Amino acid sequence: MYQKPLMKRLSMVVVLLGGALCCSILASLLTGSSKLTPGDVFAVLTGGKTTDAAAEAIIWRIRLPRAILAAAVGGTLSLGGLVFQARLRNPLAEPYILGISGGAAVGAILGMFLGMAMFPGVTLFSFTGAMMIMGGVLLLARHQSTGRSDTLLLAGVMLNAFCSACIMFLISLSQSSQVHHILFWLMGDLSMADPDQFWLLIPLLFCYLLIFTQARPMNLLLTGDESAAALGLHIRGVTWILLGTTSFMVSLIVSQAGLVGFVGLVVPHFFRLLFGPDHRTLVPACILGGGAYLVLCDLLARVLPATGEMPVGVITALIGAPLFIIMLWRNRV
Description:
Layout: H1 3-30, H2 38-46, H3 55-88, H4 100-113, H5 118-141, H6 148-173, H7 176-186, H8 202-213, H9 215-221, H10 225-230, H11 235-257, H12 263-275, H13 279-303, H14 312-332
């Protein structure tokens, strides 16, 4: 009796949000400076003949890789925010605000300056930076028995500011030809999506599956560490799995797409309002819905400017920053 309602909810979430993700990707494929009709896109995707010889190159080498990267970034950051909010029991926790993304960016830039390959060099440096910032946030808040939520938030903001200073210092040392690329990358740049590098995203699928297996422990963590331990949950082991896996996912995404903020704040709270607090439903919802959300944000970043395009991080910040302020105010009142 218990499993049937759960499976029904999961099926509904996968069908609805999977359809939303597919529709958002299709909209992304149809949008761009080169006008393609739905017939052209359908013919390219199905291997049929097209009226435009350049259509295949546009779809397979530019638009589809960008849409796939946007979906991966959105799903990963949304899931990361969900995990941090559950483990830290802080509704304002997410990779960007806590400085995890900033630490990953510092590591990635160091790896780039050292001339390392994207994998494992840059990714390893990025993961190390993310884990160092995560350790710093937890260390600063460890001795706080009261006001833990505020302490975690302030620690994250402080370390994020430190990471920003490190990034600016590294940029000041870079050559002039690198500065524009790095600055654009830091604001969330999906324009450099390379299908030849997509094998780097395969580990994300295993991370998604691993976190989904921890959905029930995340439900127990919401009751508090003492209550969860009394119910037989190994708190330290679950914490290492959740925070380690999430930091690895975020570092991999940052090394590919730069800093995209507030996705992990907006999406989990939206789906928590729609589907309730059960993480067995929220995990697939954040992966699929977060992917669709960022694909649409990237679509806006491409069509809103009169000329050129803006980084997708600008759009997510314009949406997420006001929500963060509202939630911060509500939690303090």
